[in-house]
Structures are given as structure tokens and as C-alpha cells.
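Minutes, methods subgroup
Present: GH (chair), OT, SY

1. OT presented the first of two proteins processed in the latest run. Sequence and C-alpha cells recorded below as shown on screen.
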Amino acid sequence: MRVLLWHGWLLEGTGSNVYTAQVAEELAAQGHEVVLLCQEPHPERHPWIDAVGTVDAKRVSDLTPNAAPAHAGRCVLLRPDIGSLLPVFVLDDYEGFLVKRFVDLSDVELDWYLRCNVEALRVAAAWQRTEAVIAGHAVPGGVVAKRAMGPGLYVTSIHGSDLEFAIRPQMRYRKLASEGLQAAAAVAGPSQDVLARCVELVSGIERLVQVVHPGVDTNQFCPRPAREALMDLATRLQADPDTERGRPSSLDEEVRRISESRDGAALEALARAYDQTVPDPDAAERLRAMSVRNGPIVGYFGKLIPQKGVELLLAALTRSIRRPSALVVGFGLERERLAALVLALRSGDNQTIEWLLETSSPPIRRSDLGGVPLTSNVAFTGRLDHGYAPDALAAMDVLVVPSILSEAFGMVAAEGAASGALPLVARHSGLAEVAAALEGLVGQPGLLSFEPGPAGIHHLAAGIDRLLGIPVPERQLIRDTIRAFLAEEWSWRRTAGQLLDLARTPVPS
């Protein structure tokens, strides 16, 4: 079947990026002819992509071979010509683009962006003779597909960031979401929660919504001894030339100085002084040091932005009686605030701790902390792309997802569980559905989740200690049970197949 996927951004770094990449790869593996529209600048990092080109309002360019994948189908990546402006939901640096939040776009900028993508999708679909279109996000994917293809000729896949960072705050995006979703053949979402939030904001789509869980590749994400995973990851990072552009450890002194001057803006500016898209130059050294320590490892994997709640994990470390090491994998403009908090917690600098906690989002009280100075080792790595993720997650005993944002699903929790890291997620939104499914599977309600809110740090610390206190044989049984479920029920083959079935089968009126 000839399938076209529209995604406005990259293929690494965020949940929707990874989701799109995995669905495209799986569809090509199943023998379909896939055209993928996105702005990925490094297709060479994705050997399942056969060829690369561009597309504008007039034509598809000549294609450049990318790889010779061993799959039955074919995947061509086309980059729509949208100019230099790339709208996003949450600010990050994007190579080659001027980045601006959707809510900050002028009407002229928004109209231009939509028109460029509509024309590109229309031209690409005619070139491919597309039979099925799957567009990501209620906005802009839904409205782009509707204007390019017409009503009933596409499926829209909801990811959640579009709801919370564009549609909820601004009426113009609600109108665009209504236009795109009401005309879709189906509206797929990873959880009942995110679909309910979508229906709340966009009326008239109740009959179109369908839960389609994301997947996890249990061949790629699998358990390994922690020390072996850490050492292998360190060896690979040591050989990665891109790390030279990452955050140097010498920046810690500047972080201390800025913290003493209480300049939050300068901390954020410092995060722009290096390449956020690559691992730290010293990450390999930190991982090797962690590999020789005795004791458990808890971890975080994701964006370093206030909405993800990483400060809650750092605060919970001060209350954990088991004093685990912490592995923090990720990138974002919150990195230097988090580094400042770790430095202050280690030194017992109460004044700096209180300043950082007061200006955190949400604010954390000094009384929520336990023992300071912090004795747990905390290692940052910078951004590790999806190819590094299996080793990083396999090194963790517990993977914490402390997000304070309403999440669509929490795909990283499933990837962590497949890798042998017991997930511990905040009990809200789509995360609660993930936890409930896995807790029901092992017959232990509340085991893999914690109650957020005013006492969230206490609950998170108790959850960490609870999971680390499970005897090894019981912990292994829990891991094996969850992993078998993931391989059967939450696979990318199943995800891609369900999306394609929705695109093939019109919803009855």
C-alpha cells in the first residue's frame, strides 16, 4: 500500500518524533511504500530510510539514496520547503531554523507555514499516488491533511502537546483543530485520557476517536546487566565525535557563580552556550564512574523542561532511604537550573537551594527535602538519541517519569520496562493509564505509580524505596511479566497496523 505520513519536525528527541520514525520504519518493513514528510536534517542516522528529497508547491526533487535497508517495502523522506521559520510547541534549538512557539506566531506567519505544508503534502501525494494519509497532531497535521486531501481521506494521530500548548490556550488553534479533526476519517490517540481532552476542546469528533497505543521494540529494548550497559554506552559515546559540541563540565563553575548572583535568566542563557542536541563530552567518563559504584540506579530520560518535573526527582533523592545514584538523560533549557540545584544540594548551600526551589515550577518547599547535603551521585549525560536509549534504560533499576504536564501516554515508561527498568510514573493523565495497565498485569495496584500534588516528593521517594526494596526474584518476575505483555500488546507492528486499518476503513456517518 502507498502510505504518506506527515510530521512537522524531526525523528529523534521527543515522543512524537520517535513515534513517527517507528511507525514509518515498521510500515516499510511490512512491505508498504512509505513517503514521510518531515524536517529531519540527518536521514543518515536512520538507515531504514531508502532515499531523501525535498518537496514544494510545484514538484518533488530528484532523490538522493540514503541507505539500502533490508526491508520489503520502501521509505522516502521528503522535506517540505517551509522557509526558515519552524513553529514548535515547546522551545528548543533546531538546526538551520528560526524557532518560534505556535502561540507566538503572527497570523501571517501561521498562514504561510500552513500553506507551505498543504502544498507540499498535495504535491507529494500526487507524486506517490497515495492511498492512505496519516497526519500527526491535531494542529497542524489535521488541518494540513484536510486542506491538502479533502474530508475523510486521512487519519489524524493525537500526541498531546498540540492540545496543551496550542489548542487549549488559543481559540485560533481550536478552530483549526475543529476543521482538521471533524473532517478526518479517524482520530487516533495513545490513551483514553488524551482523547477525552481532545473531545473536550474539539466538539463533534466523539464518533471518530480510537485508542491506538504506541509500541516498543522489545528486540531493541531488552534487559542487560547494568554495569555492562553502562560500559558499552560509555565506549560508544567515547567514539562519538559530536560530543565535542556538547556541554563541558567546566561550565559548572559558571553555574555556581550565576547561582550566587540569583540570575535565573543567565542560567537559561547559559544553556544556549553549547549544542543541546548532542551528548556531553564527559558523559562517557561519568558513566564509567557510575559503573563501578555499588548500589541501585534510578533514572530519568526525556526533555529537561519545567513541565517534566525533573526537580521533583532530585528533591526525592534527598528523602530516599536507599540513596540510589541517579542518571539524568536529556536536553533542554532547564539543564543549567537542574545542574545548579544538584551542585547546591551536594554542597548544602541552603540559600541557593531555597532560591532555586522558590523559582521552580511548581515551587518546591525547603521542608519537602530530606537530608542535605545530598549523598546520592547524580550524573547528567546530555541528549542521547534513540540509538543510545536501550543501553541507558537498561542501566536503570527504576525509571522515574515525574511529569507535571498532562501526558498523552508516556512511551518512555514502556521502553524502560522493556529494558528491565521498573517504571515509576506520576498518577495522572495518560501516565495513569500506563501504570494501571501494568499494575493490573502484575496484580499490585499502586506499585508503579505515585500520587502527585503537595506531598508528591514524599510519595515519589517512597515509591523509589518501595521498588528498590522488592526482593530480586520477585523483581525479575515482575519484569518478565511486563516484558511479555509489551511484546504482544504494545508492539510497533500492532500500532502501525491499527493506524493503517483506520486509514483504510471509513468511519460510518
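2. SY then presented the second protein from the same run.
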Amino acid sequence: MDGFVTIVSGLPRSGTSMMMKMLDAGGLSVVVDNLRAPDEDNPGGYYEFEKVKDIRADNSWLGEARGKVCKMVSQLLYDLPPGLDYKVVFMERNLSEMAASQRKMLVRLGRGAEAGSDEDMLRQYEAHLGKIKGWLAGQPNIAVLYVSYNAVMADPRGEAVRVAGFLGGGLDVDKMAGVLDSSLYRNRAEGPQTATAPSVEVAEEDEEAVKERLKSLGYL
């Protein structure tokens, strides 16, 4: 894995912290600073590195991240410098579940008034995910594996095997699967995750709304 940087990405509350914990348990070195402490929303920790938020201004740390894994919200993927190779484990989740989980998080942060309507948010996230998928598909230095949070909760070992294979093997898939805590699956919706088709047609106001939501949740 020394030839590329592994990135766990996705939208907030899509299972990115869970995947970081799985990869950590499986034996992959994680790039974290633990400045964001565990809380009720993420009792297992956020697995974040604060410098990630400023990647556009300073990406000097990325060279040292080869052979390791860091977590990065999907909006920041556009700022990855082209001089490195990346493997992105992109977490997806039933959007209704994700919306409910984000709303609860905003309330706990005292920002419930910033939540807006779930209908608008789901439409904006659909557009954002379509755009980022289209962009990722055109990047020759970025390989992507899309992983459903819902699938991981249903079959942790099977998904751990799939992720480990994508990253070249060598990870302990039993330990990866062993960190799953089903009691933390607290916002459930009926039906499977609906795949978002790649697209580049996104209204500027929708993209700005997504950025504001990510800032409110502490990811930008």
C-alpha cells in the first residue's frame, strides 16, 4: 500500500468513522490527531485529522500519508493534488437514515435551526453525490470502491473482505468485522440504499447549500 494514499470518504453520518475504525483494527495505519473527541454521535471516535479541512491551502502532509488511511468528507476530494495516487473507500447510506442522523447531530450541536427541510437536503445530496461520482470516474490517479453502510451492517465480514481486496490484501478481515457495534445503528429506514447515478449537472445554489451543511456539522 506504500504506493498510494487510502482515503475514507462520503457524507457525514454515512459510516466513514466506522470504516476508519475497521481499517485501523485490520492493521492499516491511520492519520488522525484526535482533536475531535468522541461524543454521543460517535462514541467510538471521529478518526479525523484537522489539517484535512485546509487541504486546498496546505497538502504537504499528504506525501507522508502513503501507505496509511485518512478520512475526508466528499466535498474535499476535489482538492486532492494530482501528483499522488489514491484509493478511495466511498461510504454510502440510505439517504433518509443519513438525514435523520444528521438532524439529530445538529440538534446536539445547538444548530437545529440550520437543518432546513429534509426534502431539500435529500435533493441537494443526490445532486452532490452524482457530481462527485462523475468527477471521480474521470480521475486517472483515483480508484474508488463504493461501500454501503447498510451492507456493512448486514454482512460485516463479507464487506470487510471486499474492502481488503480493493486495498491489495494484507488486512485482518476478522478484526475489521469484529469492531461493528449494531447498537450504534440507531436510525433505520425501510428499503436498501438507492444508487445515485453519476452526473455533472448541479445547480450552484445546491452545491453551496451542501457546503453550508457540512460546515454546520463540523466537516469543513
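Chair's summary of item 2: The two ends are 27 Å apart (CA to CA).
Next meeting: continue with the remaining queue.
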